[in-house]
Fold Mevalonate kinase.
Amino acid sequence: MTTSSAPGKVYLFGEHAVVYGEPAVPCAIERRARVTVERREDERLRVRANDLTLDGFTVTWGGETDTRPDVDVPAPLVEAATGYIDGAIAQALDAAGEPAAGFDVTVESDIPLGAGLGSSAAVVVAGIDAATRELGAELSSEELADRAYQVEYDVQDGQASRADTFCSAMGGAVRVQGEDCRRLGEVPTLPFVVGYDGNTGDTGELVAGVRELKHTYGFAADAVESIGDLVRAGEAALRDGDVEELGRLMDFNHGLLSALGVSARSLDTMVWAAREADALGAKLTGAGGGGCIVALDRTEQTHTALEYTPGCTDAFRAELDTEGVRVER
Ligand SMILES: Nc1ncnc2c1ncn2[C@@H]1O[C@H](COP(=O)(O)OP(=O)(O)O)[C@@H](O)[C@H]1O
Ligand SMILES: C[C@@](O)(CCOP(=O)(O)O)CC(=O)O
Ligand SMILES: [Mg+2]
């Protein structure tokens, strides 16, 4: 039996535009998905998904009778059990050079699901690591990130960047532009506060929406390029340790994401609550449509304001997690 864990992330900036080759800076946070994998006698997969935000479920499939079971559980969890876990196990089998093997898989996660904190990447990265180790092989963090990206790419219908998976595998603050993925060295202390509206956004649908806008309007394509420009300005601010400037750029980034149609009333409400509480800056994080915002605030004011904001179901401080994927036992 092997357990591996990997962190979720917030985007300091650059989501969506990163899908079109612009740079992005995601930062791993101290909220993890843990995946436990145990080899089975047969070639079936059995997945137990226990999410803190849901009751969880158990499902078995594969082997000789590949009938998809009819279970009364939230669709996203079933998709996880099939798409992401299936993909992670397939990658592990390929990496270990094993033609087939069955596993009992348990997923436990304190990353809200489909909320922009990269729960999918964390589950896939931890899943590939645990299953590969269970088969007696071991992958470098870079190889894990690459294989996890292939899984996200397939599940998200060919619309994914390497940002989430690389960040989850490596930990810390990272910079991703196309295939060029690197960890950022010294970064200033980033006082992240996260607000969560309890909702989910469909990453694939939201990415498709931006792609369509970009095709229809030149100025939408310009907005995507402008996000790239502000990320480059943000990299300079990171090097200078200028956290105030980072905040201003986050505000600007939220405006552009909003123009691209991926914000939501609940996200805007939390962003404004943070700004009125004198946060240095605030923006939605991840795909959008619902889920989380991230603000920068050294004081407790934003956290307190979010706790009293209607529509915000959870607010918490998120520390940068410098550790990426790791084996737990
Ligand atoms: N704890 C979990 N258990 C099972 N599946 C999970 C878990 N967390 C995430 N997933 C999978 O990841 C998907 C969410 O990924 P996505 O829409 O990309 O949002 P995000 O990565 O921002 O959380 C879920 O629909 C589910 O398939
Ligand atoms: C919108 C996007 O840039 C980030 C999606 O992040 P999340 O899955 O919502 O955490 C898509 C991607 O980079 O694959
Ligand atoms: Mg995701």
Notes: The mean pLDDT is 92. The pocket of PMV (ligand 2) is lined by residues 15-16, 18-19, 116-118, 120, 160-161, 163-164, 203, 207, 286-287 (CB under 6 Å). Residues 218-240 form the longest helix (23 residues). The longest strand covers residues 25-39.
